[in-house]
Design a protein that fits this description.
Rossmann fold, protoporphyrinogen ix oxidase, domain 3, 7-stranded mixed sheet, about 20% strand, globular, binds flavin-adenine dinucleotide, binds uridine-5'-diphosphate
Amino acid sequence: MAEYDFVVVGAGMFGAVFAREATDRGRKVLVIEKRPHIGGNCYTERREGIDVHVYGPHIFHTSDERAWEYVRRFAQFNHFVNRPKVRYRDKLYSFPINLMTLHQLWGVRTPAEAEKKLREAAVACDNPENLEQWILSQVGPEIYEIFVKGYTKKQWGREPRELPASIIQRLPIRLTFDDNYYRDRYQGIPAGGYTRLFERMLEGIEVRLNTDYFADSEKWNAAAAMLVYTGRADEYFGYRFGELEYRGLRFESRTFEGDYQGNAVVNYAEGRIPYTRVVEHKHFDFRGQPGTVVTWEYPDDYDRTKVAYYPVNDERNNALYERYKREAAGDEGLILAGRLGTYRYLDMDEAVTAAMATIQDLM
Ligand code: FAD
Ligand code: UDP
C-alpha cells in the first residue's frame, strides 16, 4: 500500500485546488514544491505593506460561476478591473483597443465613425494564418505598428508572422468606451494577496517546500498511489523526444514614495524599449499605502535553469507535446496537469476548473 493516495508535484493553482478537493474527499495527500513558497506563479509577497505580484501581474477573471464561487471560499475579492494603458513614444493610449483609443488616434467620436475608419484601415485577408495577418485584417497597419508589432516581437523574441493568431485573439477590440481588458463577468484581486488565499486553501494539508521531485523521484513514486505532476512535461520524460520551447521573463523592482504611474499596468509598446510592462502593485488594491513598489518586466530567453513562463504553442511544440501526452496516457499512476503539464496558456480560473474536473473524473 502506498503511503499517500496522491502525491501532488507543484503547489500552484492546479496543485492546490486538487490537493484541497482530494483531502476534502477523505484522501491522503502530500504536496511537494521545489520553490521556497506555495502559490506557483500566483505567489505574492508583502513589501512596504503592498502585495507584490512576484511572477508578473495576476488578475483573477472568469465567467465560470463555479470557479468564482470556489476561489471566494478562501479570500474576499476586491473590485479591481484591469484597464492598462499603452505608452508609445511620448503618448499614452487607452487599451485594449476601444473607442477612446480610436478617438486618441483618429479623432473619431462614435461607434459608426470608428467602424468606418477601421474598415478602411483593415488589410483584407480571407484566411489569416498568423498573428500579423490576423491583426492587420482587423485593425490595419497603423494600429499594428503602434500597439502590437514592437510589443509582440520583444515579448516572444520572434516576428509576429511566425506566431499563432491565438496569442492576440485573447484581447478584445471594441467600438465602445469599455476599456476592461477582459470579457469576463467576474474580476478581482484577493484581499490580502494570493499567498494568503493559497495558505487557506492548503490548510491542514502536508506541504513540503524546497523539494524538487527529480531529486528523489523513486521515493515519491513509491509513496504515491497516484502522482499528480504539474511541472514541465518534457522534463518529466527526460526530454526523450526533444525540448518544448518556452518564453522567459525577468523582473526588476524598485521602491518609491508616493505614486509612480497612477495605474497598475502600463505597457511599453515600442520595440526599442527592452521591457514590456511596468507594474505598480499598490494599484491592484485600494488601501492607499504611502510608499510604492514598481516592477519592470523584461521578456527573456528561456533555458532549463529558469522559470518556464509561457508555452510557445506553435505547430512544432504542440506536436511534440502530443507525444509526451501519449506517453503519459500509458501510465495509469500519472496525471500530467496544470499549465506546464498540459503545455497550455491556462488562466487561473481554467486551472481551478481543470483541477475540479480531474478530481470528479477520478472519484
Ligand atoms: P504554476 O503556477 O506554474 O505552478 C506549478 C508549480 O509546480 C510551480 O510552483 C513549480 O515550482 C512547481 N514545480 C514544477 N516542477 C517541479 C518539480 N520538479 N518539483 C516540485 N515542484 C515543481 N492568469 C490569470 O487568470 N490572470 C492573470 O492576470 C495572469 N497573469 C499571468 C502573468 C504571467 C506573467 C504568467 C506567467 C501567468 C499569468 N497567469 C494569469 C496564469 C497563471 O499564472 C496560471 O493560470 C496558474 O499559475 C496556473 O497554475 P499551475 O498550478 O498550473 O502552474
Ligand atoms: N499584446 C500587444 N500589445 C500589448 C499587449 C499585448 O501586442 O500592449 C499582444 C502580445 O503579443 C501578447 C498578447 O497580445 O503576447 C497577449 O497579451 P496578454 O496581455 O494577454 O499577455 P500576458 O498577460 O499573458 O503576458
